[in-house]
Structures are given as C-alpha cells and as structure tokens.
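Here is an idea for our session: we take a single protein and study its fold together. Start from the sequence, derive the backbone structure tokens from it, and show both lines together. Once you have written the record down, we can walk along the chain together:
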Amino acid sequence: MLQNTFAHMPGIGLKTEQSLWDAGIGSWDVFCDANGSVLPFGKRKSEALRAFLDTCRDKLNEGDPHFFAASLPSQLLWRLFPEFRHCAAYLDIETTGLGGPGDHITTAALYDGSQVRHYVHGKNLDRLPHDLRNYKLLVTYNGSCFDLPFIRGYFGTRVDQVHIDLRFLLRSLGYTGGLKGCEKRLGLQRNELEGVDGYFAVLLWEEYKREQNPRALETLLAYNIADTVNLETLMVTAYNLKAAQTPFTGLALPPPCPPPVPFRADDRLIRSIRDRFYFPG
C-alpha cells in the first residue's frame, strides 16, 4: 500500500491522492511514467515530485520507516505495515497501576511475528529497552497513551520507533470497547483467559508476590503474551479493512498463524481470584 500512496508527498493531500487514483495513477511507477499532460501539476512540480519518489524508493530500500512516518498523516501509518512488517514488533506491558508514584512494570511481552519474548520485574525486565531497539516499527493497543510513556518514564529511555496504535486505527473502523471488546467483535477467543483484564493482572501479580505462587506468575504471563500475540491478528485485520476502502483490494494480507503461548493459565486460580475480588461472598 505504501507504493500506492501519494499523501506523504509535498503538496499532496488526501483529496489530490484520490484524484490521482481516479485518473488511473495508482502507484509510484505509474506516476513516474505519466507524462506532464496526464498529471494534474505543472511540468516543474511534476519533475520535483518524481525526484521525491526516487528518494522514497531509496528510503524504502534502506528500510527507513521514519522517513515516511514524518510526512504521512498519522491516520495513514497503517499503510507502512506490509513493507516494514519484517522489522516490526508487537508490545504489551502489565503494571501495578496507572503510573502513579511507586507503580512499576510487572511483566512485558514482545512478539515479532516469529519469536515471543517475555520479561518479569526483578528478573529480566531490564532487557526490554535493549530488545526494543532491534525493531523499527512498534504495534500496540493504546500504547501512545499508556505503554510507551510508562516505559519511557520507568526506564528513562527513548522509545522513538514508528508506532501504530491499534486503539485509534480500530476506532476509525468502528471498533471500540477496549482491546478485549475489539477482539470479541473480530472473533478472537480467549478461552480460559476469558474475563481476565488489566485489574485482574494486578491481582495476579499481588498473588505471585504475596504467596510466591508460580501459578500466578504463569497465568499473568499467559495473559500478557495473549494480549501481545493477538495484536498481530488485529493489525492484519485492520490493514485489510483499510485497504478494502481503497481501489487496491488485492493487497489484502493473509491471516497470521499465532504462535503457541509458552505459559498456561491456571483456571482454578482464576476462579479463586474472581470469587475473592470480583464476587465476594
């Protein structure tokens, strides 16, 4: 989709991009092959835009998503996904709270489409900033408001990768209600983790720390990783729905094959916590 995009070019907005598509100029190659009489610009501007597209090709070959993200409207960042999927990672963190004094990250998960990495406070959490630097594109749900600011504040580090926040992308498609609500509407099942949410994740961490219960940590990691792995399916689904709104419906991506989650949720523990904290007797 990126090579069908013109809205990042100087002086071209969404309406002009649509007019180019309507005129049959649907890709960078067609734009550069069109003579001046076809393009709705003067000769000088047409030549400047063709030169700009030469730079775009170079930046794409160099694997530089920042170049495009700097000039694309934020609502169009989804168009970067196929070209930069190979250097993308899906990220989700769990915390003890919303970021007040004393709150910290409890667990985190990072998935790049092939490998799942997990991090635990007091064990290997300090590896997270280092591992994030391996990726040029991050995909989160509500990460612009929560995950990324929390990581920056907690570690005192920059997190400046190009970022696609599925909360806003899915909202633009009519999907609201939080991550779990979007998953349900799009047919994703949580099985034994059904009903487990962010507050439940805090309770699982407290159970783990208070009782030194390894089942609580394993259940928390199962939940955290499920959140993270599902982001890929949501990203592909959102991309396909967005692409279907353009003339380029043939660009749809196949659904991903989620990896097995290396941890299992403890159903008995989940029921016990739910009975104690959600439905007290």
Notes: The radius of gyration is 22 Å.
